[in-house]
Design brief:
The protein is α+β, with helices and mostly antiparallel strands. It is built from three helices and six strands, in the order H-H-H-E-E-E-E-E-E.
Amino acid sequence: MLQGQLEQVINMESTKEQSLERSEDEQPEIENPDEQVRLEHERYLRTLAEFENYRKRIRRERETASRQGTRDIILSLLEVVDEFDRAFEHVSDRSSPVFEGIVAIHRKLLALLEAQGVTPFTSVGQTFNPDLHEAVASVQSGDEYKPGQIVDELRRGYHWGDELLRPSQVRVAV
């Protein structure tokens, strides 16, 4: 008896699967061919628009990743430029051929950065702007500087085109 019930359940399941397969394969009858063409055309246009949006999104993501990679490399090169600047402060014999060679390398590095649109900006004497400057210290203002004015630049800031690449680190008069 149990065997018979099991066979009935299996037969019912296979009948359900067959009817589902038939209903998926069957197309609804076309009552109005013009309406069907219009619906298919709308579906085509929607798919085309989705694909175009996908292509634009992929292009934007690729450009963003490329720009971020370039930005990371440029920031690393700026650290090297900073090291050159610090080394120049401690050189005693500025007339040696070795020093002149190092200065030439420094100039080439700066020219390479400038060719990529990277430009330094001056801060000393300017009014402190938190969008461009990072205050790392404050000093008493004398007669030379007004409060809020930048007295000294500890690390140069750079723009990359219209974008701030790195803020300058400064000391501000109080």
